[in-house]
Design a protein that fits this description.
Layout (H helix, E strand, L loop, with lengths): L1 E8 L3 H12 L5 E4 L28 H14 L3 E3 L3 E5 L4 E6 L3 E12 L3 E3 L15 E3 H11 L6 E5 L3 H12 L3 E7 L8 H7 L7 E3 L1 E8 L3 E8 L12 E4 L2 E4 L3 E3 L2 H6 L23 E3 L10 H20 L6
Parallel strand pairs: 1-2, 1-6, 2-3, 6-17, 8-15, 9-10, 9-15, 10-11
Antiparallel strand pairs: 4-5, 5-6, 7-16, 12-13, 13-14
Helix pairs in contact: 1-2, 1-7, 3-4, 4-5
Bound molecules: flavin-adenine dinucleotide.
Length: about 325
């Protein structure tokens, strides 16, 4: 079995920045693994601008940000495998992964940097059966369909949730010719940034229904509409305010949560309150030699802060290798 000094899991801005930092600290024997076709992580589907003000002192798009990091990976000759899904990490730091060329394979990392990003949590409440018909998507999936793969999700959309992803996708869908009938938000205020509302919602006159929630989904094969209801500040339903809105796709713009399944199975300690991995100031977990950074650690609003965190993890993982397990 091949042993690397450092294996980086995840090639978003966190993982790439960690690998670059470790390489600059003198670690040559390292590899990045990612399940996607290309390096860059979620940046590749964020085609709007608003990235890079801190790191590159320029307002660039997500793919441009990714490209700049990838250029550095190539210049520094850092090894990577894409289309490679990590299935498991065991206690001896053995990573089991699979891809179309190597099949299932196992490699060992003296240190591991876990930078697997985040997943969407879903925000349909209560007893709504979300699996009964087609046409219900998470906003991240829609962002990928529309921005990367060139598909639209239907003709008449409802978006549940007004976080940044919900606001940005509302405008993107209108640009692609979809009628966005409403953004439904149970809170009394919009959750995303003002600038995203001003850039992506207001210019298209997309109605935002604050203080409303979805309580029913109609449709058999495909969604035909949703029932909304007014809710108070404690999210209690105001009976008698129900209203049906016809739609053929429903987009769930929900909270992101760190993607921690593989490391929690391994025994990495998690905070009880929010299920985020516990790390020390070097970003090392309770398991010696396992570092976590980026959205896998906690949800970051900006790629620049994710990149900074990756840098810290990379420097400390490199110290761990150079000084035999000591990072101080
Ligand atoms: C809609 C939206 C708008 C945003 N707008 C801005 C903005 O304007 N400005 C800004 O600075 N930031 C913005 N961000 C935030 C920024 O994009 C993210 O915080 C950042 O990209 C997260 O980086 P990451 O490396 O932690 O995770 P990701 O970029 O998600 O990378 C994680 C990588 O891990 C890989 N992975 C996961 N599990 C496995 C596995 N088991 N095996 C192999 N690979 C795996 C994934 O394929 C992925 O490539 C936005 C984010 C979104 C979603």
């Amino acid at each position: 079995m091949k042993t690397y000094d450092i294996i980086v899991i995840g090639a978003g801005p966190a993982g790439i920045s960690a690998a670059i930092a470790a390489k600059k600290e003198g670690i040559d024997n390292l590899i990045i693994l990612d399940r996607e076709d290309n390096l860059g992580g979620i940046l590749n589907q964020c085609i709007h601008d608003g990235f890079g003000m801190d790191t590159f002192k320029e307002n660039i798009t997500g793919p441009e940000y990714a490209e700049r990091l990838i250029d550095i990976v190539k210049t520094l000759n850092i090894g990577y495998k894409t289309k490679t899904t990590v299935l498991n990490i065991d206690r001896d730091n053995i990573v089991t992964a699979v891809n179309g060329i190597d099949g299932v394979f196992r490699i060992r990392g003296k240190a591991l940097i876990y930078a697997a990003g985040a997943r969407e949590n879903g925000n349909l409440k209560g007893d709504i059966n979300r699996n009964k018909c087609a046409g219900i998507y998470t906003a991240g999936t829609v962002q990928r369909f529309v921005n990367v793969e060139g598909y639209v999700t239907g003709k008449n959309a409802i978006i549940l949730g007004s976080n940044n992803l919900g606001l940005i996708m509302a405008g993107r869908l209108v640009i692609e010719g979809i009628h966005v009938k409403a953004i439904i938000e149970p809170e009394k205020n919009i959750l995303g940034l003002e600038k995203n509302f001003m850039n992506w919602v207001k210019p298209f006159d997309i109605p935002v229904k604050l203080g409303y929630d979805i309580i029913g989904i109609e449709g058999t094969k495909r969604i035909t509409g949703v029932t909304i209801i007014k809710v108070d500040i404690n999210h209690r339903r105001q009976e008698g305010t129900e209203k049906f809105i016809a739609c053929d796709n429903l987009i769930l713009a929900s909270k992101l949560i760190p993607e921690t399944e593989i490391i929690s199975k391994l025994g990495v300690s998690m905070c009880k309150k929010n299920n985020e991995p516990k790390v020390d100031e070097t970003l090392q977990t309770n398991i010696s030699g396992i570092f976590v950074c980026g959205n896998a650690l906690h949800i970051n609003e900006f790629a620049d802060s994710v990149a900074k965190e990756g840098n810290i993890a990379g420097i400390n993982a490199a110290k761990y290798i150079k000084f035999d397990g000591s990072v101080f």
